[in-house]
Amino acid sequence: YHGYDESLALDVAVKILPLPMSERDGQFAERFRREARISAHINHPNVVRTLHVDEQDDLIYLVMDYIDGQTARALVDAKGPLMLPLALQILGDATRGLQAAHAHGIVHRDVKPDNILVAKDGRVLLSDPIRPSRLNPAIPADLEVIALKALQKEIPRRYPTAREFANDLGQYLKGEAISARRETWWEKGRRWLLRR
Hints:
Order of helices and strands: EEHEEEHHEEHHHH
Strand content: 15-25%
Shape: globular
Number of strands: 7
Structural class: alpha+beta
Radius of gyration: 19 Å
Number of helices: 7
Oligomer: single chain
C-alpha cells in the first residue's frame, strides 16, 4: 500500500503480512521483527530501505521507502523486451543490491522481476531481501547457519567440499553439534574492517 508517514514526513510503502498473528506460531513475530531490524541496517542505493516494523489489530506490517516507479516485470509487460543496455543496467544494479544484502547475512530467495523496482528517475532497487528463516519461521537456528554457510558469496567462507556440507547436515539430523557456526560480533567487525 502507498502511505504517508507523518513523523518522517515522507511517502512510504506499507507491506502487510498475509496471515494474522493468531494464525502464526508464537515466535514468528519476534523473528520477523529481528529480520526487519537486520534489513533496516542495509543502507545501499540499490536496496529498498525498511524504515520500521509494527503490528496492529493482529497484523504485522513493514514500512519501507516508497519507490515511485514500477517493477521490472511491469516495465517488460508495458514495453516488451528491453534494449540490452537497459536490461544490463537493471541486472547490474540488482546484483549490487544482492551483494549489499549478502554482506548483512541476508539471502534473497525470490529474485524475480516482481522484486526489482525501477524508479521513474532511473534508480533500480531490490525489494524483499530475507533470511531463510523468513521463508519458513520453523527453520531451526543451526539449519539456517548451515544454509547461510553453503550460500556464502565469498568462496573461502563456504563449505570447502560437498562432503563437509553433507556432514553438517548429517550432524544436524542426529542432533549433534555442527561445524558451521554464527560469526561473533568481533569476527564480523574484523571482516568489515579488512574490506575497507
